[in-house]
Amino acid sequence: MDPIRESLLKKSRQSKVERLGKLVSFCCITLIVLIVLAIFYFVASRGLATFFHDKVNLIDFLTKDVWNPSVKDARGLPEVGALPMIVGSFLVTILSALVATPFAVGGAIFMTEISPRRGMQILKPVTELLVGIPSVVYGFIGLSVVVPFVRGIFGGTGFGILAGTFVLFVMILPTVTSMSVDALQAVPRYYREASLALGATRWQTIYKVVLRSATPGILTAIVFGMARAFGEALAVQMVIGNAALMPHNLVSPASTLTSVLTMGIGNTIMGSLQNNVLWSLALLLLLMSLVFNLLIRFIGRKGALKK
Amino acid sequence: MATIIETNDTHLYYGKKEALKGISMAFTANEITALIGPSGCGKSTLLRTLNRMNDLIPNVTITGKITLNGQDIYAPEMDIVELRKEVGMVFQQPNPFPFSVYDNVVYGLRLAGIRDKRQLDEAVETSLKAASVWEETKDVLHQSALALSGGQQQRVCIARVLAVKPDVILLDEPTSALDPISSSKIETMLLTLKKDYSIILVTHNMQQAGRISDRTAFFLDGRLVEYTNTTKFFTNPSKQESEDYISGRFG
Ligand SMILES: Nc1ncnc2c1ncn2[C@@H]1O[C@H](COP(=O)(O)OP(=O)(O)OP(=O)(O)O)[C@@H](O)[C@H]1O
Ligand SMILES: [Mg+2]
User: Which residues surround ligand 2, an ion (CB under 5 A)?
Assistant: First the structure.
């Protein structure tokens, strides 16, 4: 055989390395998929046992507001109304996102449009640093600063939705800000130039072109922040008061799905109803984070369509 | 012929680097003036000094005097927003906003506070017609301008400038990203626009300059080498550098 033909037929070193690389990355992705599936299966099988094995009515679980898994009601069914926690979770999430959004967007505008040099050199690294602070630190600060502060102003214990909202607001602010900065920076410079060249002021350019083009990105940032707030356990648990009661105001002790979970999961016996309902809460959390994820994808897709 | 813009010994420095080395020239109203010259000679820089877009770049120093209808545009009391409404600009890359065609065209009018739907509708139709892109866009006015072809986008950008009713239109290589057919549509359009507007066009395409411009200014390394009637420039240039450039000996 002539040497050219031979070298063409023989597998080169590069192609062997390429095959190996493909194989390794395929194994990794398989592992990840397996782990995710296993988690889903585990949480779902435990979480659903409440309804199939312990015969709790799903509607009751979602709409009743008495949480007392170890006590049975008149019909002999355990009192596991998760509504107070669901409401608590949504309240702290939505409130903290509502408070954080204007600050985050305002900060991002400052960093990208008003003072980009200082913004990019100092503020952006600082916000990114804040993203990495462990949540227990936020919880601790909340416990020693925010709770007494709320107590001082509104009376009561100081624990509750308001304190939770405040801690979550501070926690998600850096995330939402730094993602909003990315969204604003992704708006091409030529949009700004075109707007200015048409006689727009800098401020008109910011809100008519830059913010408008960056809206999908900013929404994604907000949903991201909400997902983080919804799933945050430790910091919230430290300041919310952990009373599984329907919140009637913002300054009385309440609870969230996550705080009930972290409080209870170590104190119940595997396979018991008390334990199973906690898994049901976990399942609810998992489904919600799935919803947040889908929302982010949906927003991203809608944004991409316009391009 | 009335002069609309006049520059007088204009120097421009990017930091220490001198990009315009004393430009003195007068642009005539209702004519097309072509600015040509090799890459980096300062054509875009000069164009951007005429509507003060260089103000956006840090560390730019400009000396000398530039007047629009006799008014010094770098005077402290000059309103930049008003200036940019008088002197519109079309960029090299088509850059419509990621909005609908309609919203793109009325952008400048909405900035001026015009809300009346009839007035806006009318402006959209006349501007798109003047930019000869009405036929292609009239059925997709409320769809994203980014879905149009590059040539159509560029004409929508021109319509967007026309809607503001400027006196002067600056175009920086408006056809360099387009195919020959789109380019020739824009050239024809510019010829019809010149009765209402004064047009200053940067181009690398010497045939284009020859076809549509009334006067041609040839730049080299930040200096104005020759500025004369287009026919004369291309048939009988008075400077050796101009002749070398036209015949393709450098640049
Ligand atoms: N923002 C800037 N900062 C510093 N220098 C610049 C800047 N913009 C342009 N220059 C310099 O000024 C000179 C003139 O640039 P300009 O863009 O005006 O050239 P041009 O004639 O438009 O070239 P082209 O035909 O390639 O577009 C060049 O040497 C360029 O490097
Ligand atoms: Mg240029």
Answer: B 44
| pLDDT tens-place string over residues B18-36 | 999 999 999 999 999 999 9
pTM of the model: 0.84
* Closest chain A residue to the Cα of B160, Cα to Cα: A198
CA distances for B129 relative to B85, B189, B197, B212, angstroms: 20, 10, 15, 20
ipTM score of the complex? 0.90
Q: How far apart, in Å, are the Cα atoms of B165 and each of A26, A106, A156, B126?
A: 60, 34, 65, 11
At B67, phi and psi to the nearest 5?
-120, 145
Atom of ligand 1 nearest to the CA of B59: 3
Distance (Å) from CA B223 to ligand 2 centroid: 15
Three-state SS letters, A204-264: HHHHHHHHHHHHHHHHHHHHHHHHHHHHCCHHHHHHHECCCCCCCCCCCCECCHHHHHHHH
pLDDT at A1: 60
| A307 closest CB neighbour out of B88, B110, B146 | B146
- How far apart are the CA of B243 and the centre of ligand 1, in A? 23
Q: What is the pLDDT of residues B108-130, one digit of tens each?
A: 999 999 999 999 999 999 999 99
| Four-residue CA torsion sign, A257, A259, A260, A262 | positive
- Listed by start position, the domains of chain B span 3-246
Q: Which CATH number fits domain B3-246: 3.40.50.300, 2.40.10.270, 3.30.70.930, 3.40.50.10860?
A: 3.40.50.300
Determine the 3-state secondary structure of A271 from DSSP.
coil
